[in-house]
């Protein structure tokens, strides 16, 4: 088997509270390979979001290592971590976090400009991605004029804008009604599979989890098969 695109090795993460340190991850280990879509199913409060934030280089672990394409991110400075995250990892949240003052197309263009892509090329890719999610006629709409499902589709297009190798999603359909969630989730899976991404998707829905390649959970701060 090829080397993992993303690997967590003995990751620990603790938070300081008024009552003292709160350990959330206690030696968590996980590998994601290209083309593999993994469901993360665990009760609220067990550390799903923390695991995704550490895996996505949004938080630094207190111990252990996060390797992206074999590269240990632990020794990187903030700018290098940001660049590695921007170039390699796409993130979809439960709440879309679109910039309200920009159109759908502009929301997909902006991360590409931040990565140094020429505007014309970024705009062409944004239109291509929006069309792949059935939004070819909604590019000039601001988020307030889009439905919840459309907003989340724009967020998915934005996550794919810089052609990441890894897709991380934190309850990406948790804020949608059941019918819309099913359609949006199917599009997310199709996009990930079609691009051969390594994906880790947190969901509380066992039916959605069953559509992925395998399922893991968090138990006592460790990643284990569900």
From TrEMBL:
Which InterPro entries does UniProt cross-reference here?
AAA+_ATPase, ABC_transporter-like_ATP-bd, ABC_transporter-like_CS, ABC_transpr_LolD-like, MacB-like_ATP-bd, P-loop_NTPase
- Enumerate the Pfam families for this protein: ABC_tran
Q: Which GO terms describe its molecular function?
A: ATP binding; ATP hydrolysis activity; transmembrane transporter activity
GO annotation terms (biological process): lipoprotein localization to outer membrane; protein localization to outer membrane
What residue stretches are annotated with the ABC transporter domain? Answer: 6-226
Q: Name one GO cellular component term.
A: membrane protein complex
Going by the UniProt record, its keywords in alphabetical order are:
ATP-binding, Cell inner membrane, Cell membrane, Membrane, Nucleotide-binding, Transport
Q: Superkingdom of this entry's organism?
A: Bacteria
Family annotation (CDD domains):
ABC_MJ0796_LolCDE_FtsE
* Record family assignment: Belongs to the ABC transporter superfamily. Macrolide exporter (TC 3.A.1.122) family.
* Protein name, entry field: ABC transporter ATP-binding protein
Q: What is the lineage of its organism?
A: Bacteria, Pseudomonadati, Pseudomonadota, Alphaproteobacteria, Acetobacterales
